[in-house]
UniProtKB/TrEMBL annotation:
The gene is gatC. It catalyses: L-aspartyl-tRNA(Asn) + L-glutamine + ATP + H2O = L-asparaginyl-tRNA(Asn) + L-glutamate + ADP + phosphate + 2 H(+); L-glutamyl-tRNA(Gln) + L-glutamine + ATP + H2O = L-glutaminyl-tRNA(Gln) + L-glutamate + ADP + phosphate + H(+). InterPro entries: Asp/Glu-ADT_sf_sub_c, GatC. The lineage of its organism: Bacteria, Pseudomonadati, Pseudomonadota, Alphaproteobacteria, Hyphomicrobiales. It comes from the Bacteria. Belongs to the GatC family. Keywords: ATP-binding, Ligase, Nucleotide-binding, Protein biosynthesis. This is Aspartyl/glutamyl-tRNA(Asn/Gln) amidotransferase subunit C. Heterotrimer of A, B and C subunits. It is an enzyme of class 6 (ligase). Transmembrane segments: none annotated. Allows the formation of correctly charged Asn-tRNA(Asn) or Gln-tRNA(Gln) through the transamidation of misacylated Asp-tRNA(Asn) or Glu-tRNA(Gln) in organisms which lack either or both of asparaginyl-tRNA or glutaminyl-tRNA synthetases. The reaction takes place in the presence of glutamine and ATP through an activated phospho-Asp-tRNA(Asn) or phospho-Glu-tRNA(Gln). Its EC number is 6.3.5.-.
Amino acid sequence: MSVDTNTVRRVAKLARIAVTEDEVASMQGELNAILGFVEQLGEVDVSGVEPMTSVIPMEMRKREDVVTDGGKAEDIVANAPATEDHFFMVPKVVE
């Protein structure tokens, strides 16, 4: 895939990068080099390679999924201007 000057200007606009006309040609070369490298990565055979989160095999730290704090519904809504059945009451926004 090759990037033309119009694409460079569009990418610069989307990225909110000020690019002068003199910089468009050099940026075009840089983007084409980056896309060429990405295309090379597509040629690498990764069949049989397991996805990994780290280069060192490690187990993710986990904790028990238990409720450690709760039963404070009255305390939570105590300072609300309007509540009903432990829920916050808010004004209707959409008619």
